[in-house]
Design goal:
This protein has one domain: Rubrerythrin, domain 2 (Single Sheet), CATH 2.20.28.120. The relative contact order is 0.36. It has a four-stranded antiparallel sheet with strand order 2-1-4-3, with no helix packed on it. The chain is elongated and about 45 Å long. The chain is an all-beta fold and about 55 residues long. The model has no long low-confidence stretch (mean pLDDT about 95). Belongs to the bacterial ribosomal protein bL33 family. This is Large ribosomal subunit protein bL33. Keywords: Ribonucleoprotein, Ribosomal protein.
């Protein structure tokens, strides 16, 4: 069976609140680390979220 193209990644808040989002990314086309600005409800503002592995 073939390996899946899309993988699940965890986007961790850079505000160190412990809040995270789970999203999918295409591992073949997006080889670099994913980084997005999203809302952190604990910090109550938009902050940078960076990719980390799901354990």
């Amino acid at each position: 069976m073939a390996k899946a193209v899309t993988i699940k990644v965890k986007l961790v808040s850079s505000a160190d609140t412990g809040f995270y989002y789970v999203t999918k990314k295409n591992s073949r086309t997006m080889t670099d680390k994913l980084s997005k600005k999203k809302y952190d409800p604990i910090a109550k503002k938009h902050v940078e979220f960076r990719e980390s592995k799901i354990k």
